[in-house]
Design brief:
Largest sheet: 7 strands, antiparallel
CATH superfamily of the largest domain: Flavodoxin domain
Structural class: alpha/beta
Helix content: 10-25%
Order of helices and strands: HEHEHEHEHEEHEEEHEEEEEEEHE
Number of domains: 2
CATH topology of the largest domain: Rossmann fold
Shape: elongated
Number of strands: 17
Oligomer: single chain
Strand content: 25-35%
Length: 321
């Protein structure tokens, strides 16, 4: 009995030290993150980080994930905020009562807008009595995550993720793909979290865009070292002044040499190739020579390509969207 009393006393002392929610950055976070990244609005975001917490811990992790993926963030706010006394575990507090009641569904103050644009949803929460807080159940029963990849993550000083994510998964239909839950412990740094997020392979590569004079064109780029090097150059914007040549192509200097793997190539209208390691060539006719393929313009007919390229020198701009 004395051992049980001592254990309960220790648990009460630990829970009494739980920080109240801090409005200023991450002053109450228990992970090893001292400041939040500045999130930028990204209308093309394909990932959403949804999180709930009564201190700054899950917030700090969520912002770090969003920064790594250029994702949007949504905080789950309860209709009735949790006071410090609500979190004093093993005192029959509000958290104790909710976690022991399978039917408990705390109210959500605001709901996320349509999730249609997102293919990936990160779901973050603290571990309460070995499980996700019941407000996560309320949320998942009220939104549609069909067909999405769900990445659950939790924060805890000692407890593992346990069955928390599996119990949340049971609330969604079988078209949602759930990854294994990730526990973020107190020693985790922002670099640790970024490394984990990027290891998942969920970040969409930035697309390189081509504009010919004032006309944007769609290009299906090859997957090779030459295109990767060209994409790096395009990150800051790359303008190439082109010249007509041979009545079937426009050619211009890239300004530096790229990796090349030239092979004898029969080109056709719309092909984009690398010549001599440092020349960009775009065809509106055909030719046969040793080139490295870079891509093919997919949204222009041969007549449209000739109209774009066959009436004088042009300027091609490469950029990252």
């Amino acid at each position: 009995m004395k051992k049980l009393t001592a254990l309960l006393t220790a648990l009460l002392l630990m829970t009494a030290a739980l920080p109240a929610f801090a409005a200023d950055a991450v002053s109450s976070a228990t992970v090893n993150i001292s400041s939040l990244p500045e999130l930028r609005e990204n209308p093309d975001a394909s990932a959403l980080v949804v999180y709930f917490s009564t201190d700054d811990t899950v917030k700090a992790v969520s912002y770090t994930i969003a920064d790594a993926l250029s994702a949007d963030v949504f905080e789950i706010l309860p209709e009735i905020p949790y006071a410090e006394d609500d979190l004093k575990y093993y005192t029959n507090c509000r958290a104790d009562q909710e976690q022991s009641d399978s039917t408990a569904r705390p109210g959500v103050l605001t709901w996320p807008d349509s999730l249609e644009k997102y293919s990936v949803v990160f779901l973050g929460y603290p571990i309460w009595h070995g499980q996700a807080p019941k407000i996560l159940y309320t949320l998942l029963e009220g939104i549609d995550v069909s067909g999405k990849t769900i990445v659950p993550f939790c924060t805890s000083a000692s407890s593992g993720a346990g069955s928390s994510a599996r119990n949340l998964q049971a609330l969604t239909d079988n078209t949602a793909v759930w990854l294994d839950a990730k526990r973020i412990d107190n020693s985790s740094t922002a670099d640790d979290i970024r490394s984990w997020v990027l290891s998942l392979g969920l970040k969409e590569e930035a697309a390189m865009k081509m504009t010919i004079n004032d006309t944007p064109v769609s290009v299906a780029w090859e997957d090779n070292d030459s295109v990767k090097a060209l994409t790096n150059l395009a990150a800051d914007g790359l303008t190439i002044r082109m010249s007509m040549y041979g009545g079937f192509e426009q050619v211009g200097s890239i300004g530096q040499r790229l990796p090349s793997h030239d092979v004898q190539t029969n080109t056709s209208s719309g092909d984009v190739v690398l010549y001599s390691g440092d020349q960009l060539v775009v065809f509106y006719g055909s030719n046969s020579w040793a080139y490295t393929r870079l891509g093919h313009i997919t949204d222009q007919t041969p007549d449209q390509m000739r109209s774009l390229l066959g009436n004088g020198d042009v300027t091609i701009t490469l950029s990252i969207d």
